[in-house]
Amino acid sequence: MRLFLDSSVLLAAAGSTSGASRLLISSARRERWTLLTSAYCLREAEHNLPKLSPNATVDWHRLIKPRLTVVGTHLVLDRPLIYRAVKDRPVVITALSLKSDVLLTLDRDDFHDLLGSSVYGLSIRTPGEFLKGVRR
To answer: Which CATH number belongs to the domain containing residue 128 in this structure?
Structure first.
């Protein structure tokens, strides 16, 4: 399964050892999930990483970043995308262009109308919702 991780999930995984985002990343190899993110999300996460604890930076470099497949940011889509959060359009477009199965985000402000639904077959979930669905 191809999982696209938004920067909010990357930061949560670095900042908390016990949250769903960290569990998702630590389970990826065993579950055979491919963890995808874009250069756009990676830059945003690394920009905000210093706001977290010093341990978050250590965990980022040791546990999280090595497990990610980072791709270029795609800005063109072969179909219309009407989505009000301009800054997050590259996230949705890149996830779609990579044929991701799920886009995982904790950004409830910008993704609130899409969480729990899908765009062109791309499911949009929080890490906790995704993990609960997988366990069923």
So the answer is: 3.40.50.1010
